[in-house]
Structure formats: C-alpha cells, structure tokens
Amino acid sequence: MPGLSYDLYSINEVSVIVRLLLAVLLGGIIGFERGRAGRPAGLRTHILVCLGAALAMMTNQFIFENFAESDPTRMAAQVISGIGFLGAGTILVTGRHQVRGLTTAAGLWATACMGLAIGTGFYLAAIVSCILIAFVIEILHKFDNMLLSKSRVLDLYIEFSNEVPFPSILEALKNLQVEIYNIDIVKPNYGTSAQLAAVMALKLKKRKDRVDIIAKICNLEGVIFAEEI
C-alpha cells in the first residue's frame, strides 16, 4: 500500500492514467445533470473542463519536480482565471430579460477547481467536492424552487398595448394587492404587437399563489403578456 500510495501521488504512468480517468468520471457526473437539464454546457463540456484542468495541474507538477526554478501555482491560477471566459459564455439574457446559466457557469468553475485537485493528487477533496457539487445542483435546486414559491417578491416582464393609459394599468395592478417598488421600461420583443414593455418588481402584500397573480395580471385590460423572470 505505501508503494501504491507513492505511485498515485507522484507523476508516473499509473498516476497519470488514474488522474485523467478520475477527471473524466467526476466531470461527467456533474455534466450529466447539466446536460439532462438541457443546458448548453453539458456532459462533454464539463468532462473537457475537468480533464483540461487536471492536465494543466499535472503538467505544472511535472515542471516543478523536474525544473528547480518554477512556480507551482502559476498554471492553476491561469486555469481559474481562464475558466471565467467559458463560464461567461453560458450566461444568457433572454429576449424577455431573463438571466439564464448562472448555475451552469458556477458549476463549470467548480468543475475546473475539481480538476485541479485531481491533477495535483488531492483525490479525497476531488471526490468529496464532486458529491457536494452534485448535491447542490440536483437536490438544492428543488429547495431553491420551494423558497421561490414562498417568496412575496415577484419580478415580471410585462408587455402592454396602447389601448389603455399606462397609469390606469398601474392602478389596476395595485388593486390586486401588490406593491410596485421598481419599474424599468424596456423595448418590446421583436415581432410582438406590444407598444410598451417593462420589467417590474412587485411585492405581494399577502402571501398568494404566484401563478394565480400572474394570471390575473395577464387578464388586465391593456396587458398583452406577463411572465415571471
């Protein structure tokens, strides 16, 4: 066992294969859930990120062991900063001003860090972090939705027609027992009949069914479309 332990913690043929295969496995576990959820960065992306980070860290360790004057943290720092560009590509703002991809971007960053741990031979941290990342993405997603459903704060994208004056629509909204505490006028989506659109932050005066409130807002005169963002 001491010999095996030494082999896995130093750079040699066995440890290189083990680390790369472990990077594929753990990166694939995280990427599988993201791919199943239909995210742009799915199984292959997470595997490649984890594999590349592990390879960078192994290369860094190899250079450090074979060349005296080298910085053992330089390549790891470059991976951490570089993954930001890939993560930024997964964050999208939809036509209705919905922000998508934050969890995927955070998952990619965490997967890269996991790959660095694998590459340096920190196996325990990599395996435990994989379990925790999967738990946060898969299990806490349901808890997050439950908290959102109980929240009294409601962010909506609403499209209006010009048939009813905008102040009259705002007054009708207040009659639904909601408090308007922020309004951002935005450009309506291309191809719609809306003359005006707004992103509105509302606060429910009483805890109500969010779906029911949105349905009532959609039925207001002058409102063409309403959606939670």
CA distance, first residue to last residue: 55 Å
Secondary structure category: alpha+beta
Q: Supply Rg.
A: 25 Å
Uncertain stretches: none
Number of separate domains? 2
Which term fits the overall shape? elongated
Average pLDDT, rounded to a whole number, is: 83
The SSE order reads: HHHHEEHHEHEEHE
Separate helix tally: 8
Number of strands: 6
Strand content: 15-25%
How would you describe what is shown here?
The protein is an alpha+beta fold and 229 residues long. The chain has two domains: 2-148, no CATH class; 151-228, Ribosomal protein S6/Translation elongation factor EF1B (Alpha-Beta Plaits, 2-Layer Sandwich), CATH 3.30.70.60. 59% of the residues lie in helices and 16% in strands. It is built from eight helices and six strands. It has helices at 2-9, 13-36, 43-66, 74-88, 102-119, 123-150, 166-174, 210-218, and strands at residues 92-93, 99-100, 153-160, 178-186, 196-204, 223-228. The strands form two sheets. The protein has a four-stranded antiparallel β-sheet, covered by helices on one side. It has a two-stranded antiparallel sheet with strand order 1-2. Helix 2 (13-36) packs antiparallel against helix 3 (43-66), helix 3 runs antiparallel to helix 4 and helix 3 (43-66) runs parallel beside helix 5. It is elongated and about 75 Å long. The termini are far apart. The model has no long low-confidence stretch (mean pLDDT 83).
